[in-house]
Design brief:
The structure is a homodimer.
Chain A lengths: L3 H16 L8 E3 L6 E4 L4 E11 L11 H17 L4 E11 L5 H18 L2 E9 L5 E11 L14 E5 L4 H18 L12 H8 L5 H9 L6 E4 L4 H12 L2 E5 L7 H9 L4 H7 L6 E5 L1 H4 L8 E8 L5 E4 L5 E3 L8
Helix pairs in contact in A: 2-3, 4-5
C-alpha cells in the first residue's frame, strides 16, 4: 500500500490523467489537462466545463472568511477557469455539504455571495445538490461556459518569441492571507483584542477573500481584437502556472523580475512579514489574474493598456524558466505553488 | 439564528430555489427544479447539466462499500438524472476530496469504478479537481448530456389520465442496505465472524452497492417511438418522486398496490426484516429506475415490455396520491423518502 503523500497532489493528478482513456464522444473536443474541458455546442460556439471543490479547513478557514465572500470566491475561481479559455460563463451548479452547526442565516449569507457573483459574471445558477456533511462545509461548483470557435485559447499553443503578459498585479492575495492568519493567531492568544487590520490593508485582504475573475479582460481582448496564442489563470502562482504553459506548449520562458507587476501595498506588507515580494508574486497563488502569450507584433495593441504588463517572452528551451535581473543575470526558477 | 434542522433539507432547497433569481442567459432553457438543468446546444440538440455530492458517513459507509462500486455508483446516480430527461450523458467531471489515510491503491480502485461506469454509459471523463479533505472522502460529480430538442422530458408536463409507468423493480436497494447494515453490526459485535451474506442476496446487495442508470430504457423508448409526457428518476422512493411529478404537473395519482413491481428476493428479505415490501418500494429510495407517464393510447406500445410496468394513472386532483387495493379501497399515501 502506497500512502498518498509519496505521490503528492501533482503526482496523483498525473496518475489519474494517465489512467484516463482518451475521449470517445464525438462532442468532446478536449478532456483533462486545460483550465476547462471543451465540447461541441454548434458550428460557431464551443462549450466549456469546469469544476472546483472547496473544503473547510483546507481551502478556507471560517474563523476569518465571511460566508458571503466565500460564496463569491467559490464562483469566481471557477469563472476564472472559463476566462482562461477566453470564454464567458453561462450556467452554474452548486453542490453544498453542510454540517449541522450551520444556521439557515449562514446558508443565506453563503448564497447571497454566490448570487452576487452570478450577477457580477452574468451566469445563471441552474441547479445543484444540498446535503448533510459530517464535518465541515463542502462547496462543489461546476460552470458551463461558451467561447466562439475561433477565439478559444488553450495552454499548449504558445510559441517561442511570444510576449508573456499578465493582467493586474501579483502576490497580493498571498500577503492578504498572511495578514488574516496573523490576525487569527493574535485573536486566539488574546480574544479581547481589537482588530488591528488597517484600512490600507483592505486591498490585500480583499484580494484574498473576494478575488475577481478576469472576465473583464476577456471582453477587453475581444474589443482590442487581440487573440492570445495561449492562456491560463493564475491560481497556483506565476512560476507554477507559467511552467504549465511552457510544458504543454513545449517552450521555455524568460521573465524579467523588474517587470512583474506588484502593488505598493504588497511591497509594504512583504517587508513587514520579511517575505520577498517577488517570491510572493512567483509562488503565492490565488491571484486569479490571467497569464497569456501574444505574438510580438500583436503586443503593439496592448502596450498602452494600464492593466496588462509584458513580463517576458517564450523561448525554445523546453520547460526552462529563467528569471532575468536588471543587470542581465539569468537564474532558473522553480515552481512551488500550492499543493491543494 | 435558525438551526438548519427546523427547515429540513426539503425546506432548505425550497428556500434556495425561491431566493434564486430567474435565469437571464438566453442559453438557459430550464434552471433549478428538474432532474437536470437545460441549456441550448444547437437547433436540434439540447444540453443537460447535473451535479451530485457524495460525502462519506452520509451517503456511504466505507466499512462495507467497496471503492470500485462506489466510483461506479457516483457516476450512475448522475447519469440517472440525465436519463430522467430522456437524454444520454456525454462529458463528466470528478471532484475528489481525499483524507490522508487514503492510499494510492484506494484512489486507483475508486477511479477504476468511475471508468467502468464511463465505459458502461459511454461518457467521457474530461476533467475535475483533486484535493485534500480534513476528514472523509468527498465525491462531487457533474455530468453534461444531450437530448434531441423534441424528445426532452420534464417533470411538469404529465396530464390527467396519463398511464404511470416504472422500469425494473422497486425496494431492492433499500433491503440491500438493511442486509449490509445488519452485517456490519454483527461484524462489529464479533470481528471473527464469517460473512453470512448468501448468494441469493447478491441481487439486493448489488442494487444497493452498484445501481445501474437506465440509459438502456432511454434507447428502448426511442426504438419503440414512445415519448413520455413526463419523467423522473427514482432516487428518493416512489412516493416522494411521484409526488414531485404530481406537484410540478398539477396532477394527482392513483397507483395500484398489486401492480408495483417487487422482486421475489425483496419479498423474502422484507419478511426477514419485518418490513412491508410495499413500504420498501414506496419509501426505500435509491432504486434509480425511471418513473414516467404516457398517454393511454401510447401505452399500447409498452404493455408487452418485460421491464416496464403500468402502476396507475394521473388524476386531476392536485398533489393527492392514492394507493388502491385489489378490493377497490383507496388510501392517501405520504411521501417520506430520504432526507439526505
Amino acid at each position: 500500500m502506497t500512502p498518498l503523500q509519496t505521490l503528492g497532489e501533482r503526482g496523483l493528478i498525473q496518475r489519474i490523467q494517465q489512467n484516463t482513456p482518451a475521449p470517445k464522444q464525438p462532442s468532446t473536443l478536449r478532456g483533462i489537462g486545460d483550465d476547462a474541458a471543451v465540447f461541441t455546442l454548434n458550428d460557431q460556439i464551443i462549450g466549456l466545463l469546469t469544476t472546483d471543490l472547496l473544503i473547510e479547513g483546507i481551502h478556507f478557514d471560517l474563523t476569518y472568511v465571511p460566508l458571503r465572500h466565500l460564496g463569491f470566491k467559490a464562483v469566481a475561481v471557477n469563472v476564472s477557469d472559463i476566462a482562461a479559455m477566453n470564454g464567458l460563463p453561462t450556467q452554474l451548479t452548486v453542490g453544498l455539504g453542510l454540517s449541522s452547526r450551520f444556521t439557515v442565516e449562514a446558508v443565506d449569507e453563503l448564497y447571497a455571495g454566490i448570487q452576487a457573483a452570478c450577477e457580477a459574471y452574468n451566469v445563471d445558477l441552474v441547479g445543484g445538490d444540498t446535503t448533510t456533511s459530517r464535518s465541515g462545509l463542502v462547496i462543489a461548483i461546476s460552470v458551463v461556459g461558451q467561447v466562439a470557435q475561433n477565439k478559444i485559447t488553450y495552454r499548449n499553443t504558445a510559441k517561442p518569441n511570444d510576449v508573456i503578459c499578465v493582467t493586474g498585479d501579483l502576490g497580493a492575495a498571498y500577503l492578504g492571507l498572511q495578514l488574516l492568519e496573523r490576525e487569527k493567531q493574535e485573536y486566539l492568544a488574546n480574544p479581547d483584542m481589537q482588530p488591528a487590520l488597517s484600512e490600507e490593508r483592505a486591498y490585500l485582504i480583499g484580494r484574498q477573500l473576494r478575488p475577481d475573475a478576469r472576465t473583464d479582460m476577456v471582453h477587453e481582448l475581444r474589443d482590442l481584437d487581440v487573440l492570445p496564442t495561449a492562456m491560463i489563470d493564475l491560481s497556483d502562482g506565476l512560476a507554477s502556472d507559467l511552467l504549465h504553459l511552457c510544458t504543454q506548449s513545449g517552450t521555455g520562458a524568460v521573465i524579467f523580475d523588474e517587470n512583474i507587476p506588484i502593488d505598493d501595498q504588497t511591497y509594504l506588507a512583504a517587508e513587514e512579514f520579511k517575505i520577498s515580494p517577488l517570491t510572493a508574486a512567483l509562488n503565492g497563488g490565488e491571484d486569479y489574474e490571467l497569464l497569456f502569450t501574444v505574438p510580438p507584433q500583436m503586443f503593439e495593441k496592448l502596450k498602452n493598456h494600464s492593466r496588462i504588463t509584458a513580463i517576458g517572452y517564450m523561448t525554445n528551451t523546453p520547460d526552462q524558466i529563467m528569471l532575468a535581473t536588471k543587470a542581465g543575470q539569468q537564474t532558473p526558477i522553480q515552481a512551488q505553488g500550492w499543493s491543494q
